[in-house]
Structure of ERIP6 protein:
Amino acid sequence: YPSGNLAIIVTREGDQLTCTVQEDEPRSTRIRALFQSDGRSTCYYPNGDEWINMNIQGGQYLDQAGSRVRRWAWPNMSPGLHVPLKPIFISLNRHVGIRILAQDKIIISFLAMGRQAKFNMGIKVQVSGSTQLRAPAWLGEDELLLLAFRVRILQLFDRMRACINFPSSEQWSKMQPPAYLLTQAAKVLEHCAATEMSDELGSSIRALVKL
């Protein structure tokens, strides 16, 4: 950002690429969006609530109360859900915008000081007529809640290690969470979005894994 704060970070863990968009804040690593090369992506409202969630089969758009506004399926991915995508554009802040045009056209745009950079984090998946993708494994409410608590505990342990290794709060408060924690948090949110549950439980789970 013009302020000097990191805006977009791309990391690699094995064959997995992760693109993270951070908020323009000097003492925070608040995540505004997370895009993964396996097709899973999540965008967040400024308060940390889930805004858009996507996976290899489709996606959904939520309002700030957590209610589903729109849901879609990528072509030939989910035979039981014939809802096409209508192009989506959202502004994470005054510098970063997201355009979702197709599964292989998910564009992150960064504009500052008269210059623009674009990242395409979409993927193209080819599925033969005799092959269908399996839906993500279903998890019950109790299992999801336990998984969310596990992610939260790992987050707290990571924060404790940062406090010990970097006593200055100005240093550890700026540190990026490990990629595996971002991935696990995104998995919990993905399962949460695909599971029918009460609004209260969904809000509790999202609050637990919020980074």
Summary: Confidence is low (pLDDT under 50) at residues 128-138. The first strand starts at residue 8 and ends at 13. The CA atoms of residues 168 and 210 lie 23 Å apart. The first helix runs from residue 141 to 165.
